[in-house]
Amino acid sequence: KSIGKIGSMHLQHTHVPYPTKERLQPRRFKAHLMGTTYVYDFPELFRQAVHTQWNYAIVNCPELKCPQDVLEAKELALDEKGQLQEVVRSAGSNTCGMVAWLLTLFTPEYPKGRKIIVIANDITYQFGTFGFVEDQFFTKATELARKLGIPRIYLSANYGARVGLANELMNNFKVSWKNENNPSEGINYLFLDAETYKQLNQNEKKSVIAEKLVENGERTIQNEGQPIILTGASALNKVLGREVYMSSLQLGGTQIMHRNGITHLTAQNDLEGITKIIQWLSYVPSARDLPVPIFENSDTWDRDIDYIPPKGLYDPRWLLAGKYEADNWISGFFDRESFLETLGAWAKTVVVGRARLGGIPMGVIAVETRTVEHIIPADPANSESQQEIIMEAGQVWYPNSAYKTAQAINDFNKGEQLPLMIFANWRGFSGGQRDMFLEILKYGSYIVDALIDYKQPVFVYIVPNGELRGGAWVVVDPTINESKMEMYADEKAKAGILEPEGIVEIKYRNAQLISTMEQLDETYKKLKKSLEDPLKTEVEKSKIEILLKAREQELLPVYSQIALQFAELHDTPGRMKAKNAIRKILEWKNARRFFYWRVRRRIHEEYMFKKLININPNFTRNQMKKYLTEWFYNDVGTEFDWEESDFKVAKWIDEMLENFSDDERNEGNNIINMKSSTNKKDLINLRIKNIKNEMITKKVVELAKIN
Amino acid sequence: KSIGKIGSMHLQHTHVPYPTKERLQPRRFKAHLMGTTYVYDFPELFRQAVHTQWNYAIVNCPELKCPQDVLEAKELALDEKGQLQEVVRSAGSNTCGMVAWLLTLFTPEYPKGRKIIVIANDITYQFGTFGFVEDQFFTKATELARKLGIPRIYLSANYGARVGLANELMNNFKVSWKNENNPSEGINYLFLDAETYKQLNQNEKKSVIAEKLVENGERTIQNEGQPIILTGASALNKVLGREVYMSSLQLGGTQIMHRNGITHLTAQNDLEGITKIIQWLSYVPSARDLPVPIFENSDTWDRDIDYIPPKGLYDPRWLLAGKYEADNWISGFFDRESFLETLGAWAKTVVVGRARLGGIPMGVIAVETRTVEHIIPADPANSESQQEIIMEAGQVWYPNSAYKTAQAINDFNKGEQLPLMIFANWRGFSGGQRDMFLEILKYGSYIVDALIDYKQPVFVYIVPNGELRGGAWVVVDPTINESKMEMYADEKAKAGILEPEGIVEIKYRNAQLISTMEQLDETYKKLKKSLEDPLKTEVEKSKIEILLKAREQELLPVYSQIALQFAELHDTPGRMKAKNAIRKILEWKNARRFFYWRVRRRIHEEYMFKKLININPNFTRNQMKKYLTEWFYNDVGTEFDWEESDFKVAKWIDEMLENFSDDERNEGNNIINMKSSTNKKDLINLRIKNIKNEMITKKVVELAKIN
Question: CA-CA distance, A596 to B369, in Å (whole number)?
């Protein structure tokens, strides 16, 4: 019997030997030699990573308690019919070069467990290559993840597709010689004799490596020191006929793949990589179409934002995450230490990542204000090429940063289903020849495409001392996706198609300046009037003309200033609000408070819409809104305005959601599956039932018409 | 009364003056000055372009007759409620900077008329800028095109968004001076007096320029000499602080925009541009989801293909379109003179365009075999940059050509709904450092994405003396979209993951060579055996060893040859067929005959599937196939194999389709709307009715269950 925690030998005979891992040591060693963890050791890394996640969480909320075991692993394997089954077998019993598990992780966000599928290459199996069996296994495991709507993690460590010759023939073919007696004269052809030919019945299906390419690469974490490549360095050197590449890392190391946006995050080793996977998952719903995991922590929603973006240059990460200033913590918009930047080495004029707002995970896009260096490496294969350093100004979209913006939006939307916060501060797109050649227009429209497609609420906030102009405004304007997007401006933000200097140059030229002068300056007005006096002689008139000119010259500088100020007055949040271009003017200090409830209310609202659309896919948003507002006024009272009462609406839906089963909110399967507890629950049940009935009646009527 | 053709003064009073166009001359002149046609002259250009199209068609088929009038134009305008209406008004009566027409074109493919929406900028209106009204008009006209499912042409000639200051305030604001008596000392602020303030009630909605960006730029034909730009040269020079750009053409002329794939085609002038639009439209169905316009011409399907792709280098256009050889016409795969290449200046290692096969329009992708120059222009804004010339090898996908391939597939699929022919001949993707940095992997997966999404039949044909290897195979493999894609190989094509030289290096090294030698060479075998003889002395044995080595040295070259040949034998279409990687092995000479019926049958089949899916969106392909085959065996007889009898199946569906109303096939609105004529028609009507009834019964049963 075990003393304390139950040990691995619990209730076993005393003569049972301790299991030795000896058997696996050679493979483990082989894997390590190739720079990777042995495949069956990965679940343990996941366990450690979840523990690390708990440790972080407990620092913030000491009342949390880490469960005894934070991971449950069930290995998956194909049965004789090619169907995926859970198997219990000892490590290393795999019969193909891929291994997969259904892992249940007990994380701080999901203490009751969340499931993921992990697929990994066994690099010790057939030299880490994959063929038909591996492909099939990969596909099946992926299909399972898709069916369950849960994340699929692929731990890639392989040497590509398995190639081979027909081994069954290799020892059996015959040769027709040019000269039977002197083979070195050459051959005519190869052939099989009749008997061997008869044995040729097998007809194996070809390898389906296509699937891989489709599924992979959505989000990549790359180990430093491990390349992502198409063709190895030595094979390429052979093609090129000279020793161009020293190592495959030159081709697909992190200095290439992280800088061009293929790799989202890098890691020093497998444990760090897995830890980053777990951290990333903490922002993501446990399964498709479930609400995001709201994980409240010690950083309350109800606080000022300390860090105020200044007029000049600053690091946009400070605005998001806060910073230390001489040992003082200056808080940012999001929860402390919740910001995880991705794609950090690529297109640095835009900063993207994930963060929490009062515990709500969000996708984040912010704008660099400083000029950054964009380094294009020299191409070893072209001896004339040089490393190019291109300076990219802050607040401007370049082809690369526009692409990065679009890709980040797609990442947040697809699979992760996060609400999105865009801290806008753009002067426009860069339209130089280089940018035009690099298809800046195409990438700009990718941003629009990504936003059109966005299924969760999107908030665009023009930051204090930030601005939004011309082409940049066009691609983040809420009319792109009206039901999901909202735009806000800080009271200290500016926005307009052109900058004031530009517009004055076009629309407030000398003629207009003088007309303004004539209207405001009494002296000038009088002189002008006296010019029209029919009693004045030509000489007097020319004297007045001189005086007029002098007055003009004296006053023009100050009138230019007036014009500029007039143009600047068009540039205010007030005018944006008046023109209905923004929903509200906000004060930065309080923006966290506002958005916490706004975001919460909006994601709740969308979740309710999803429930209703499940009942009737033909519901319009307006119809669904009508249902919700009706219920809201019924339950909460008509003194609250539906549009404006974020706190009330959020709380009201909160209560309703509590009546749905825990499973649904935490692990989730059936969306319309409810648990009985309160009156509220009966009410929502009744309401949904009513809508269903309405719908059925309508359908029957329709069908009757058709017949 | 008119004599002959009814004239414009028909039945009018004799004193009615002839209409003078004088009134429009100033605007026409203004437009010409800006390098464009006056907006109201465009319908005439369309008329001329359609005439040109008829002239071409009549050269091929002299029995065709061009109708009297080939164009009907109805101008569209917004009424007072902001709804689009057809209007009859004289040219130049437009009240905003955009004009639109619903044009009916009577083309050779659609002699009964096809409709398109044309939207054009009036560059003479408010300096060719656009604001809210223009945006709204553009959106409405676009929505109409979308509703009718017909092509929308946008003739773009404008100076971008209209910017302005609040004119109503410009003459009314007051200034608070620092020193009322000496204005030149400066100002405190601007203000409005109470009375002016009261007048401020208007609250106009902001401009929705977003729509533009979304909708535009799918397919671009650019006039030489007219730039596509974001910011003009002079404005950019101002930003850069020096005279970098001489002209906006440097930024967005065809030498930039055609070379980077933004511009699909270029034209010397507006007439040529419109002619190309009409030509392009000739490949495209008149409305969404209608069959492609099959326009048979004098080039019969029933002929050999003269041009045979050789082993060495050649222009892939010859294979598609044929060529002259010393005054002899050597025909290609497609109908003579039917190939229209697009995106020709971009990524030249891939050739894309549209062509006809026995009258059936298809999207085409072919592979350049020659090495081409990829020129990256120097950036005028960076004095250190130089023009770069990169040599790109044929038969290899680079980031740009992979992107082009994916974009062409998307273009063919979306809007044009064409069947697709891919003449495959790829050795793989280029995986050098430069390509890796330029995200070759991403673009490769774009091809897969585009094919997954393809809604029409796709045919991949590995051409004679062509090959398909490794990564390239993966992205065009039919398993990507099994219900739409089919792969064929020419009897002279080769395919495999690695090229034979590569695979021999890995899998047929010295040890295996010697083992083959031991098996095939009697001399060697005997020597080896005698080595094992226990009676031999050590001295004898070492003599034998020497003999063995000598024999090895003598024979190794020829055995390397044997190994290579063995590997090459894996590389044959026969093995591809045996492995089920291709559907059939074809002979190039007869490929046109085969594909004509195959393509025709496949598009017919898909069209029937569309009809069935309209009845019940939940039908699987197998269910629908079951219906079709059942009917086929019923009508045609069970002696024909459904899969193999392309000619029979095509003819059979042909007959059925003839029973659908002409409107549907030619102009098309309601898909399930049929015209009565024959017994066949009653039969298909009855069958569809039966399916509908089945479905309704099922639904009622389902509903009963829910309730």
Answer: 59
What is the tens place of the pLDDT at every residue in B54-75? 999 998 888 889 999 999 999 9
Does the interface predicted TM-score (ipTM) exceed 0.90? no
A250 in reach of chain B (CB within 8 A): yes
Spatial CB neighbours of A450, under 8 Å, sequence gap ≥ 6: A405, A406, A407, A409, A410, A413
pLDDT digits (tens, 9 = 90+) for B654-689: 887 776 544 444 433 333 333 434 556 667 777 877
DSSP assignment, residue A312?
S
Do residue B217 and residue A442 have CB atoms under 8 angstroms apart? yes
User: How far, in Å, are A246, A586, B482, B484, B508 from residue B618 at the CA level?
Assistant: 56, 49, 19, 18, 52
Distances (CA, A) of B7 to A445, B43, B45, B154, B251: 49, 19, 21, 31, 48
Task: Say which residues have a Cβ less than 8 Å from residue A361's Cβ, sequence separation at least 6.
Answer: A282, A283, A284, A292, A293, A294, A295, A354, A355, A418
How far from chain centre, in Å, is Cα A588?
25
The helix or strand, by DSSP H or E, that contains position B31, with its residue range, turns out to be helix B25-33
What pLDDT, on a 0 to 100 scale, did the predictor assign at position A238? 78
E-state strands within A481-582: 485-490, 494-496
B163 vs B465, higher pLDDT = B465
Residue with tokens 């945006």: B135
Q: What residues have CB less than 8 Å from A292, skipping those under 6 apart?
A: A283, A284, A285, A360, A361, A417, A418, A419, A603
pTM beyond 0.90: the answer is: no
Residue with tokens 């399907």: B301
Minimal Cα distance from A522: which residue of B?
B181
Given 3-state DSSP classes, what are the helix, strand and coil percentages for chain B, each rounded to the nearest 5?
45, 15, 40
Strands (E), B412-493: 420-424, 428-429, 458-462, 467-469, 485-490
Is any Cβ of chain B less than 8 angstroms from the Cβ of A64?
no
- Inspect the interface and report whether the beta carbons of B205 and A580 lie closer than 8 Å: yes
Which residues 152-171 in chain A show a CB within 8 A of chain B?
161, 163-166, 169-171
The upper half-sphere exposure of residue A684, i.e. CA atoms within 13 Å in the direction of its Cβ, equals 24
Residue A359 has pLDDT above 70, yes or no: yes
Closest residue in A to B502 (Cα–Cα): A235
Contact yes or no for A558 and B183 at CB 8 A: yes
Say whether residue B482 is in contact with chain A using an 8 A CB cutoff.
Answer: no
pLDDT of residue B249: 86
Rounded Cα gap, residues A594 and A517, in angstroms? 45
Cβ atoms of A397 and A428 closer than 8 Å: yes
- Residue window 668-697, chain A: list those with CB within 8 Å of chain B: 692-693, 696
Token duo for residue B671:
């898909």
Tell me, yes or no, if B450 comes closer than 8 A to chain A by beta carbon: no
Size of interface A-B (CB pairs under 8 A): 279
From chain A, the residues in CB contact with B390 under 8 A are 382
3-state secondary structure of A115: strand
CB spacing of A707 vs B696 below 8 angstroms: yes
Judged by average pLDDT, the poorest of A212-221, A411-420, A623-632, B145-154 is: A212-221
Answer whether residue B32 shows pLDDT above 50: yes
Q: Tell me, yes or no, if B550 comes closer than 8 A to chain A by beta carbon.
A: no
| A204 neighbors A132 (Cβ within 8 angstroms) | yes
- Under the banding of pLDDT at 50, 70 and 90, the label for residue A199 is low
Q: Could you give the CA distance from residue B75 to residue B96 in angstroms, rounded to a whole number? A: 13
How many other CB atoms sit within 10 Å of the CB of residue A246? 10
A520 touching chain B per CB within 8 A: yes
- pLDDT recorded at residue B595: 97
Closest residue in A to B552 (Cα–Cα): A184
Residue tagged 């004088």 (tokens) = B22
